[in-house]
Design a protein that fits this description.
Blueprint: H1 9-21, H2 32-41, H3 45-56, H4 72-84, H5 86-100, H6 113-123, H7 129-147, E1 163-167, H8 176-179, E2 185-189, H9 190-197, E3 201-203, E4 209-211, H10 219-224, H11 243-252, E5 275-276, H12 278-286, H13 293-296, H14 311-320, E6 333-335, E7 338-349, E8 357-359, E9 363-367, H15 370-373, H16 382-387, E10 389-396, E11 414-421, H17 424-447, H18 458-461, E12 471-474, E13 482-485, H19 487-497, H20 512-526, H21 531-537, H22 551-558, H23 570-574, E14 577-584, E15 594-598, H24 601-604, H25 615-621, E16 624-631, E17 643-650, H26 654-673, E18 679-681, E19 699-701, E20 711-716, E21 725-727, E22 730-732, E23 734-739, H27 741-749
Parallel strand pairs: 5-6, 7-10, 14-16
Antiparallel strand pairs: 1-2, 3-4, 6-7, 7-8, 9-13, 10-11, 12-13, 15-23, 16-17, 18-19, 20-23, 21-22
Helix pairs in contact: 1-3, 1-5, 2-3, 5-6, 6-7, 25-26
Length: about 750
Amino acid sequence: MAGRNNWTREQTMMAFALYRILPSGKWDKRNPTIQRLADHIRRSPSAVALKLGNLASLDENRTTKGLTNCSRLDREIWEEYAERGDALVFESAQLLASALNGPDDRPAANGDSVVEQIVAPQIGYDRPALVTQRVNQQYFRNTLVHNYHDRCCITGIAIDPLLVASHIKPWKDSSPTEKVAASNGLLLNAFHDKAFDQGLITLDNDFAIHVSPHVEHTEINDEWLYRYDGRRISLPVVCSPSREFLEFHREHIYQLYPPNKPCNGYNQNMDKGHIFQKSELERILSDCIDKTLSEVDSKHVLASKKANKGYPGMVIEQSVLNYPADNARRPDLVVDGVETELKTTGIIKSKKHGIKYEAKEPVSITAVRPKYIVNEEFEKSGFWEKTAHMLLVYYQYTHKASANAPLTYGDFPIRGFEFKAIDGETKEALEKDWTIVRDFIRQIQHDYPDKPESQYPRISSDLNRQRLTSIDTAPKWPNPPRFRFKRRFVSTLVQEYFGKKFDKLPDTYTSFEEIDAKCHELTQKYSGKTISELFDIFNIKTGKAPSKEDAERVVVKMFGGTASKINKVEMFNKYSIIGKTVVITKKGYRTEDMKLDSIDFEEVQKQSVTFEESSFKTIFSDPQYLCIIFEEPSHDAPFAENKFLGFKRCFFDDSFIENEVQPIWESMRKLIFDHTLKNVPQLTSKGEKRYNKNGTLREAPNWPKSKDGIVFLRGSGRDSSDKIVNINGVQMYRQNIWVKGTYIVRKLEELPYL
């Protein structure tokens, strides 16, 4: 008895390719293309036609389903299609084209148009231009008809003669592969196809429609165009429009600016509503200081949609400065003839002594765009265009948290503004960071020419903490990454604006490599010296015996500064470098845990805040830790006798954050939202209850403890009067994040001295 002749992966991929381009009305055993494929794979034409029907049953983009006798391999192909999209279609098309071609890699003599639809775009054999265009267009259209289930994605019109396969990035500007990519297409009715092609409408990255200001408001225009303004298109389940192609359309095709408005010699795309004198802006924005966003929102922007992080900027743009928000890649304003980017930046009250405010989060600048950045130079890059001159408007997060209370941006007051020109050492540091990202992407594209996107997640994971001082990129690919100013970089700008004076070093450092080199030089010069000897060398007078807190003062002196702490030095603060004194024994052991930062419980209690966007994550993902290593001669020796060994620079990597930090965040949230947070008795090492001096039972919240993992929470305060935090009725000290010292010393052992 003969065994079952199961379909192979290659055969299934060929059938999948044929399914993607062949209209359902032609799934017939008499179709010559089906017959040729059947002959090639030694199956009957009926079997191939049935396979197309089985594949159709898995297509979630179809309104009518095919047959249901699909195999495990059929399902695997569709799952892969959901992940790879066009890439799998192209690979499958290559297999089908090879199977149906003649021996000289050209279509067989009896080839029909369907075969050529596959061969022309993929193999690229010579054909007259008009024929090639027709063939490619037909292949492209059939794919979009499948994806958008025979309906216009804007209106839902389902009249086939009126449906047009519209390119997002125009045919003339597209590479051969882009010309036939489903992710570069929309299925539109003829009217909206023309409007899209002429730049009278576009889509944002959330697939919402925007109508050009070139279109006047009339009864007819409102009915045919403006009625769809702000609506999202209907999307296919897989192979949605590429955000990269949408960005191209907005930048090069969309008519963003109203006609007949001269720009006085500035950017020709800048209408008069975006042009200001600096004195005028200072007057307008000064009137807004200490007013809430609701109080200045004359256009009722906050009431228009569900609140999101973009709302403060929209209020400033539309209600305060009186111009509409847009998605243009150029800077928002012209101020005294200088193109200037407007950035609204959230700030929070600082818990640190001597600091009024700090940044709530990083500041997003512009898209990374791997395809385009490789051909840019810094001075002409979109990034520098948006950072060279900025208008920063600071608003304060003032909400009081509860698990169910919505985030109300309208209550946030505007606290200040400043015009910021980036130059000098800051510009040099930003240029080095940007160049590192660009060159990294260039190397990826060189090493992985066929599938560079498979390596794009490394743009964030391999660069953000290892090499970038002032900027990072987020989110991770395949989400479109954006350049951002790091939170501590922004905090430095905020703190300087609100009066903080930082110590400035005599020498400039614009990269971690330069800082590491200086640390190496200092280690060579001072390693082996005791704290007491270093005090004498740098003439440090404290009036008391040296303590662990004095170690950072010594380091600042080594760098030529005068401050008592590393965080009081502008360079260290700006580059997110935190000093940590680490004392080890002669055998290299360390027992002290490392205290990081206090927890923003208002944020933790907001259900809408995700771990990825939380300051809790930023505590681990943002900083570099400059560990100052000392060796103690004995356990009871005074700190003055400890010997300086050198520096090690470290950070928490993605794996640690995912496996050790995020579970703590989730555990905290579960305790809060499940209402299981409570105070529990503190126990001695013998398991006995501990009591305060006044005889009361010593208690602490049931947060994750050091016995539970590497990362844990611990409160600190002098007495019960310091229990100023209240969550769900549980009173507690301010809580700090800690990392076990045993883990820290183990990681440091893996690192060489700088």
